[in-house]
Amino acid sequence: MKKNKLFSVIISVLLLGGTCFADVTFSGMAGGSTGFSGIFNKDDSSFNIPFNAFAALQFNFGSWGIFRANMGLSAKNIANENIFEGQDAVLKMNEISLVLTKAGNSIKNYFGFYLGTYEVAGKDEYLQRHLGIEPFTSSVTKSETTLTCGLPLYENYGTGFSYVMDYNNVPGSLGFNLYINLIENSTPQLNFDIRTAWSTKLLTVDFAAGIGAPLQNKAAGTNVILLIDTLYLHGGLSLLLGNQYTHSLLIQGGIQNIAINPGSFEDSFEGIKDFSFIVEPRITSKHFKFRISAYSLPKNQLKDLLYLNDPLGADVNFYSDAIPVKNNNMTAGCHIIGSFSDESLISAITNEFDFTKMNSFNAYITPYLIFPVANGQLEIMGQFGACNILESMYFTGKIKAGYRKTF
Length: 407
Hints:
Shape: globular
Low-confidence stretches: none
Strand content: over 45%
Distance between the termini: 32 Å
Number of strands: 22
């Protein structure tokens, strides 16, 4: 109820601002995907028609303010008529934010107030907004909802305040976030993050780190005013050596929920689950491009990915994005993926990379096309998978089409 009232206040302020200030511009983006997916030659064979959609909008109020809203809808199977209801359907407000801007002689200041996720570490939003560079995150992390790339290197969903200063004379920015989210048992957690990003011709770096403090009101069953007995570290790094037009190397890594208890600190890999890692050498030629990716991702981040199905694996993506179509170019390529459904980089390290101890090996081939349609982008992909190859093999398949348009 409180959030609904806050949304109403924000919308009222926006409508009032639109009538009081003439210098207001609007932009937005919308799209989604649907298709068919299934499991074959297995006792629990299934067939689904997944559906995903999103809408995002932005109001620019002259030079003093920016309002953004972003929401998404996902349903695992619309064949069951549960597109707007049921446990398999999710309608989520990803972001509502109001950013006040103030320009100075050497820096530009951004004061942000938000609900949801805001300029997630691991995605391109922060670098695009503050440094004005093109997206560079790995295409293997493409979302089937937004058809954009990138994954959160740690979760920052909550209600909070952000301050960022962009330097006018050098290509860099520095800022912090202060936000509250809910963790297990609806316990509020106060988080403080620091973030900085820099970009040059042959180097781009985006680094964020922070600490979370669960705020409890009971100690050994007794009510207290405030108890903080554990702190949790989190952080993420995106590093691009080279640029989009040369041979390059992308490295991303993130971790969260590293507990700091009184007198102790997590000093081993065992038990660490919330760990993300991608390393991707990129080879660029005039007509073709190659991306070789090795990745380890938390399982809970896989549910919205277009190409990936498993948390640990490697991908070879070869494609051409310079195929002429009328007055524009289309992209044609193919992902070849080998992955493990029940492993992670942490478990691989624990097993000393002994692959005989690792099971549930899967292989996928995924051709795709991306081409311009009505001032937007249409992507069509198909995927054939051979799963559990080392034990009792079965097959999976999916065909999906997605469209994204900016207006």
